[in-house]
Amino acid sequence: MALAPILLLALGGNALIRKGQEGSIEQQFENLKTPLKQVARLSQTFRIILTHGNGPQVGDLLLRQECCSKNTAKLPLEILVAQTQGQIGYMIESSLDTELMELEGAEQKPLVSLLSYVVVDANDPGFGNPTKPIGPVLREDQALSAPYPVRETAKGPRRVVASPRPITIVEKREIKRLIDQDFIVICCGGGGIPVIRQGRKFCGVDAVIDKDLASSCLAREVGVEIFCIVTDVEGAYLDYGTPEQHLLGTVTASEARRLLATGAFPPGSMGPKVEACLEFLGNGGREAVICSIDSIDQAVAGRSGTRIVRD
Ligand code: ADP
Ligand code: MG
């Protein structure tokens, strides 16, 4: 029997913490139900890879250690990214397990959540120019007195950290083998643990990789057919945040590339999503779509979201 097409779903941090929420663990588990019910249904038609962000969670861990680390050693960002892979991987896996059990009973698909690390270039210009927002939106006074870099984002001022480009996913062969055996694989959490190569060794670095770019890198390396980026807006808008804003429906890759170059999609949020879709299509991917948490199945069916298609 022919294998089902591979669908890679990249879940935004807002799949766990919605706008305006404090982000308690109960809220995060509750929020996961909406996307994961849809993922469970989609797993009946597709082989599924799930990746996820960690912006709010990794920023919270940094704040925690800054508040109370007088008597304990400071943990570098790469370790905090690994921690968020564990915590979010656990939350997604256990919640999806419940949804699959409801849908399929004892016949449910096997699933696994993998710690993943991702190679970056030690000379990446991203190390000298932090762009990746993490943690909560700051009040104006907090933003002005923060002892770390802060940037204005569409949601307000936030802490930013270095975000080098992903080069390769270290566990790509393992991931491919697992999906070929019909496992649902949760991986590349928070963009993956960033590492550089030093001779034959890997060595962790202080950064957070953009999960959309890590996902398109993985998509290329394992031969994904459909790439779906799930976030807290309906898709990519033109004139976003103005009274004239309107949602892009279907656009060709060359049109999306032109719009990206005009600055319609800012770095650190919508920019890397459009870029990731373009990279995916440029590498032979079939379909790329950016959609909201509430309409994943509609978007995969071509009825919602921003679809970027090959020219
Ligand atoms: P995620 O956690 O899903 O990666 P991001 O915050 O990184 O979410 O990106 C989604 C956000 O991008 C939206 O909430 C919106 O505020 C912002 N955004 C900026 N420009 C645009 C645009 N042109 N169209 C849609 N959203 C945009
Ligand atoms: Mg993001």
Short recap of the structure:
The two termini are 32 Å apart. The chain has helices at 25-42, 55-68, 77-104, 140-145, 172-180, 211-222, 253-261, 270-282, 296-300; strands at residues 6-11, 47-52, 111-113, 117-119, 132-134, 150-153, 156-161, 168-169, 184-186, 193-198, 201-204, 226-231, 237-238, 246-247, 250-252, 287-292, 306-309. With 311 residues, the chain is α/β, with parallel strands linked by helices.
How would you describe what is shown here?
The chain is of the alpha/beta class. The protein has a single domain (6-224), classed as Carbamate kinase (3-Layer(aba) Sandwich). The protein has helices spanning 25-42, 55-68, 77-104, 140-145, 172-180, 211-222, 253-261, 270-282, 296-300; strands spanning 6-11, 47-52, 111-113, 117-119, 132-134, 150-153, 156-161, 168-169, 184-186, 193-198, 201-204, 226-231, 237-238, 246-247, 250-252, 287-292, 306-309. Helix 2 (55-68) packs across helix 3 (77-104) and helix 7 runs antiparallel to helix 8. Bound molecules: adenosine-5'-diphosphate and magnesium ion.
Question: What is the number of domains?
Answer: 1
CATH class, named Alpha Beta
Question: What do we call the CATH topology?
Answer: Carbamate kinase
Bound molecules: adenosine-5'-diphosphate, magnesium ion
Share of helical residues: 25-40%
Note the beta-strand portion.
15-25%
Total number of strands: 17
| Secondary structural class | alpha/beta
Average per-residue pLDDT, rounded, comes to 94
By DSSP (H or I, 4+ residues per run), the number of helices equals: 9
